[in-house]
Amino acid sequence: MSLSINLLATIAIQLQQGISHQDRFQRLISTLRDVLQCDASALLRYEAQHFRPLAIDGLSPDVPGRRFALNEHPRLEAIARAGDIVRFPADSTLPDPYDGLIPGHESLKVHACIGLPLFAGQNLIGALTLDGMDPTQFDNFSDEELRLIAVLAAGALDNALLIEQLEKNNPLPAATAAHTGHASATEMIGLCAPMVALKKAIDIVAPSDLNVLISGETGTGKELVARAIHEGSARAANPLVYLNCAALPETVAESELFGHVKGAFTGAISNRSGKFEMADHGTLFLDEIGELSLPLQAKLLRVLQYGDIQRVGDDRSLRVDVRVLAATNRDLKEEVMEGRFRADLYHRLSVFPLAVPALRERGDDKVVLAGFFCEQSRARLGLGSVVLSASALAHIRAYDWPGNVRELEHAIHRAILLAGATQNSDELILEASHFALTPGLETSSPAPVELPPENLALRSATDAFQSQLIRRTLAENNHNWAACARALDIDVANLHRLAKRLGLKPSRAGNKTRDGH
Q1: Per-residue confidence (pLDDT) for residue 162, from 0 to 100
Q2: Do the beta carbons of residue 90 and residue 47 sit within 8 Å?
Q3: Which end of the chain has fewer beta carbons closer than 10 Å to its terminal beta carbon, N or C?
């Protein structure tokens, strides 16, 4: 079988149809999967030594959230450096980035795999990957036919990047990222309509100098929005200064904001700059702005109106050029009605309001974000792969995530540690039991468990996590080891052995506990 002119024309037509780039890309890889009869296809965008999935077919729904670093995925690195079609041997020993991520196929040890690098001139901008479980799947397709597909896909992707460049009035990400050497720390993962709208609003307001009020529940990523606005502004080369207003004691709040001079109060042993001075010509992000006292709100309003500040204990005024971004998890309109927030300050801050959607409102973004955190943790812990099972995906979709993105991130980290403790492999499969979530739960969440330090090896991190979890569960069950074992879904004898190894109980004989062990 080979590609006919009609089939190539069909692919070209698919790339011209659709109301969005995402729709065109999805049509492309779906058509390719159908025409080439492969089990999985993906269109990847190249940026900052990473490949980012733009559209997939036949892969797990969490794959669009994963970011594949070239130095961690040899097959993708080979595609990026090849300059032409790469046909991997069916029995290639190079690990496949999609291992465990094609539903119904646990491993990809022997299979057909092709990579098509996509170029704009001499610059790599992306890749197409094709996988088939039949080792001879693509033998009848010539390199020339596949090159034609690559040219069509590269043209569509390049057009999309050019339009994105014009819309943002910024240099092409593919060009700028090559100089940064790392993926953007402000990338907001999400494909749902509310997130697409939020990203467009950020693109609109970022280049301006307007103040922005960012509202949303705790854990939704308001700080990430602030960073994206700053990085998209003309102030990006200058500081983004962060201040958590909720953590400010009233006695030092004014000094933190505006600074003080030596002798202004007891303990003021030298002059000190405040956050506004530190952010001069840059951006000041005031998190939890609703926690500021009314007197401080009045002083903040003056700065926004006139652009000058006074250090505590100083009669002189200092001019500052600062863009203010504020965030809150409160309804500030209601706070104004109740007299707890100044109406004039509210209007000054909310020149361009942005609302960050709760995770429960973001549909399948839950799964996409889970994929992102899985890949992030896999790289951090040096694992071969981290796969979400069908049951884990179902739980992630069903749970309401009252703690939002932050709760999901911690839940993924915990699940990986729990899976690593029992699976004794660097290729982990996360099951629903590793999350201990209740579908539909809205008002409560699993008791927080502090994550181990990031620089620990997997075994040390697992031991630290298990020790903490056992201690907490034991305390919750009145120090009854049998009840603790039931709560942890582990045999009581195995729990005793694990506790002894972790140093949680004496190993000497004759030590009796409430359950007779």
Answers
A1: 82
A2: no
A3: N
Q: Both tokens of residue 373?
A: 């955190």
Report the C-alpha gap between 453 and 410 in whole angstroms.
13
Distance CA 96, CA 106 (A): 12
**457-478, pLDDT tens digit by residue?**
666 777 788 888 888 888 777 7
Average pLDDT over residues 119-148: 92
Model confidence at 15: pLDDT above 50: yes
Q: Tell how strand 354-355 and strand 212-215 pair up.
A: parallel
CB 327 within 8 A of CB 222: yes
Q: Which helix (H) or strand (E) holds 35?
A: helix 21-36
**What is the sign, positive or negative, of the torsion defined by CA atoms of 449, 452, 454, 460?**
negative
Task: Check pLDDT > 60 for residue 173.
Answer: no
Contact 268, 223 (CB under 8 A): no
- Contact of 50 with 69, CB cutoff 8 Å: yes
Say how far apart CA 6 and CA 480 lie, in whole Å: 72
Six-digit token pair at 346? Answer: 């509210």
Residue 517's H or E segment, with its range, is: none
Instruction: Give me the DSSP letters along 140-186.
Output: TS-HHHHHHHHHHHHHHHHHHHHHHHHHHTS--HHHHHHHH-S--TT
* The pLDDT of residue 172 is above 50: no
Where are the alpha helices (H) located in 37-181, listed in sequence order? 74-82, 143-168, 173-180
SS (H, E, C) 348-370: HHCCCCEECCCHHHCCCHHHHHH
DSSP 114: E
Residue whose token pair is 């030298």: 270
pLDDT at 369: 97
Give CA–CA dist 438/422, Å, rounded. 22
Within 13 Å and on the Cβ side, how many CA atoms surround 461? 21
Question: Amino acid letter at 15?
Answer: L
DSSP assignment of 251-297 equals HHHHHHHH-B-TTSSTT--S-B--HHHHTTTSEEEEETGGGS-HHHH
CA distances, 46 to each of 25, 54, 125, 377, 477 (Å): 15, 10, 5, 21, 51
Decide: 172 and 165 in contact? Cβ < 8 Å: yes
Average per-residue pLDDT for the chain: 84
Q: What are the pLDDT digits (tens) for 255-273?
A: 888 887 776 666 666 777 8
DSSP states of 438-454 as a string? -TT--S--PPP-PPPPT
Q: Is 175 exposed, middle or buried (0-12, 13-18, 19+ CB in 10 A)?
A: middle
104: which 2 tokens?
């119904």
The span from the CA of 344 to the CA of 71, in Å, is 52
